[in-house]
Amino acid sequence: MRERLHPVLDGVCERDWETEPLERLEPMRFAVIGVGWFTRGRALPALEASEVCEPSVVVTSSEAKAERVASEVDGDARGITYDQFHEGVAADAYDAVYVVTPNALHLEYVETAADFGKHVLCEKPMERDSARAATLRETCADAGVELMVAYRMHTEPTVRRARELIEAGVVGEPMEVRGTMSQRLLDRINADPDQWRLDPELAGGGALFDIGLYPLNTARFLLDADPVAVTGRTRSSHDAFDEVDETVSFTVEFPDDVYASCFASHNARQSSCIYVTGTEGRVGVEPAFFQDQQRTLRVSRGGGRASVDVTAVDQMLEEFDYFAHQVRTGGPLYADGSHGLVDMHAMEAVYEADERGRWVDVE
Amino acid sequence: MRERLHPVLDGVCERDWETEPLERLEPMRFAVIGVGWFTRGRALPALEASEVCEPSVVVTSSEAKAERVASEVDGDARGITYDQFHEGVAADAYDAVYVVTPNALHLEYVETAADFGKHVLCEKPMERDSARAATLRETCADAGVELMVAYRMHTEPTVRRARELIEAGVVGEPMEVRGTMSQRLLDRINADPDQWRLDPELAGGGALFDIGLYPLNTARFLLDADPVAVTGRTRSSHDAFDEVDETVSFTVEFPDDVYASCFASHNARQSSCIYVTGTEGRVGVEPAFFQDQQRTLRVSRGGGRASVDVTAVDQMLEEFDYFAHQVRTGGPLYADGSHGLVDMHAMEAVYEADERGRWVDVE
What we know:
Two copies of one chain form a homodimer. By secondary structure, chain A is α/β, with parallel strands linked by helices. The first copy, chain A, has helices spanning about 5-10, 35-50, 65-70, 80-85, 105-115, 130-145, 155-165, 185-190, 200-205, 205-225, 315-330, 335-355; strands at about 30-35, 55-60, 80, 95-100, 120-125, 145-150, 175-185, 230-235, 245-255, 260-265, 265-280, 280-285, 295-300, 305-310, 360. Chain A folds into two domains: about 15-150, NAD(P)-binding Rossmann-like Domain (Rossmann fold); about 155-315 and about 335-360, Dihydrodipicolinate Reductase, domain 2 (2-Layer Sandwich), CATH 3.30.360.
């Protein structure tokens, strides 16, 4: 990678983290907790496709639904209810849990998983607030189970390549980051006005928590730095978003006077990108954050601009395989709970900044 | 244009403002006040190329330089000094002035031009501060001469097409704007550490005044709206910028909760873009602000994304011709002094917001 572009083409989708062939590792059997469109459409197919992971247990609200979904999964998956999960039913059948419930329910399933000594892959944001997220982290630490927060950008090859380029000095000193993620939630994903994403008790926040997290966290990942302070404004124009933010514009101060300006909306046309501009060059990924899209890695430096189109990988497969690989080989997990907690603090600071009309330091 | 893309290709560079053929208009003879690289490389060649404008007088510091530059101009241009200009030398030889001096000197030349009844095309920002800019505006109004502030984006065809698309509803309701402009001033434009752009007395501000104005003003132009409030942060890492901002990140609130996040730097790799994302689509121009670059108009809507590459026009020729056309036909001038003054207030509010660490309303 070092300051030359052509290896990007050769190895653009390489799994630089894969030090041990997956087929040599002990399989990682997952209990998937929470069955919505994302689980059925994304998570279960990725677990089925994995060489090292298996979807062995499906956990949802009713026995009937659990059994129906389990029966659709390749192999011998079991379907159990949330109550059964807490009771320890099928605890021998999984090594790890993938928690993909509404945000405010993460903690209770993680607590049970930790009690049974199961490793945890927890969807982001970690919880509905930083206090519960901190408890979640401590719960796993106290039980000695591994915890990873499921930021799929960390194992998206294009984003990893962008990070390597920045680390190798291709942009010089980073000066600013811009990131956006927007979609028409009600049109495109889910028209249900009672969905949990619109409920502050279950979600903790609106567009910021759900998708603003992508530019925020990816800026951190690309810069390898954490927020110092934030400011931002939220707003909602649609009745469905009267309790959570529909749209947010926020700016994150990083060390060395690097600023990231971010935008997220559940009521704007789909867009997603992230760019880092430095003294010497610019690196970006666009589209960046939605799944199944061909990404373009864009690099400007000197007199040149290069665009590398990258075939979409199965991001959930990358993430599950990474998690299994790291746990089985004893490697570090990125992102761990402390990393996820920083985002919780940063996002809460954005809401505080919005209320106070000023910059707010991030704890 | 109305909601269809193909006329963009047919008429992408059309001068929609040109209601009278230029050759039928009385020529507009310009005194060009201030001779730097921009005047020699951009302004004078454009005036030479124009069908309706002529560079008839060149005004600079010394007789020798004035005569040398005038002798290089096509036609019978006269070269005079600043003092001679104030004395009225060659006042019969020009109908309008193009003021392209350091910002803090605009007012004095505009005052003289107004005294002689000459129309004024004044470079942006209008002056070094809003008080002087307001005086400049009043001076022209009192003298009954026309005043236009030289925002070349207003006559850049790609930007005009973007504005038409937005006005026609292609993006739905605008939700956010992103704009950047950066360059390595000391590397690329002018390595002189004594240049006026680094002197707060002459410039009034740094990157914000010089180039941050582009995303700010173009956001206004595309949205057809004026700023409500701003927040921002400035910083300088290079010694040359110890008195003016080298880099600025700022956010502009527009009516209806539309926010524009803007970045400008004199120490980052060249970049320039502007994008408007709305409920239904996205329209942008990239690269947007530097001259002589092929621009790409980018439009997303429904399931489609279109990119229209637009050959670079001579932006100064577009601007001079527009000014002459509007003055000669009695049409309105966009941007007038009141429009320019809004930017002065907005930029001063960014500096205040930086000092106070909060949002500041724009007067």
